[in-house]
Amino acid sequence: MEDQIPKHLPIRIKIRKEKEASFKDLKNANWARELEIEVTNTGEQDIYFLSLGIFLPEIKAEDGKDISFPLYYGREELANLPARARPGDVPIKPHETWIFKLLENNVLGYEAFSRKRKWVSPKKVVVHFRRLNFGDGTGFEGWGGTFLPQSPK
């Protein structure tokens, strides 16, 4: 797994220890079903929304694009900054860990296409950052992790 999350962001990721061997087994056709990624909030603020992307650069769709899977934590409306947390929203608190799994419908689609096109298990899986919302109207977005809202120039 190649971690391409910007280092200045308050999150760290790793494959869950119990799933590491099955993930690294190139003969494991169920790797996507078994993949679990631990994300730890290393900052001092609650995280109410987090979006990451899992990319398979060695495998291409019919249109030539990389195969990818979205990972989301939190209420969908919080994907838009400056959306704010509501009383019922549950954050990933500082120093807490959340475990991401690929969505079942994404796994089923990938497995079906994999069988149909005779794809081999990827040797490289890349994790990109997309968006983070602290619930107070601030956060980060984009592969480079730009802080939002940006201060006026």
Give an overview of the whole structure.
- This protein is of the alpha+beta class and 153 residues long.
- It has three helices and nine strands, in the order E-E-H-H-E-E-E-E-H-E-E-E.
- The chain has helices at residues 20-24, 31-34, 104-117, and strands at residues 2-3, 11-15, 36-41, 49-60, 66-73, 97-101, 126-133, 139-141, 146-148.
- The strands form two sheets. Strands 1, 4, 5, 7, 8 and 9 form a six-stranded mixed beta sheet that branches. The chain has a three-stranded antiparallel beta sheet with strand order 2-3-6, with no helix packed on it.
- A hairpin with a 4-residue loop joins strand 8 and strand 9 (146-148).
- The chain starts with a strand and ends in a 5-residue tail after the last strand.
- The relative contact order is 0.26.
Q: What is the helical fraction, as a range of percent?
A: 10-25%
- Major β-sheet profile: 6 strands, mixed
Per the principal axes of the C-alpha atoms, what is the gross shape? elongated
SSE series: EEHHEEEEHEEE
Q: How big is the Rg? A: 16 Å
Outline of the structure:
With 153 residues, the protein is α+β, with helices and mostly antiparallel strands. It has three helices and nine strands, in the order ββααββββαβββ.
Notable characteristics:
three-stranded antiparallel β-sheet, alpha+beta, six-stranded mixed β-sheet, 153 residues, single chain, 3 helices
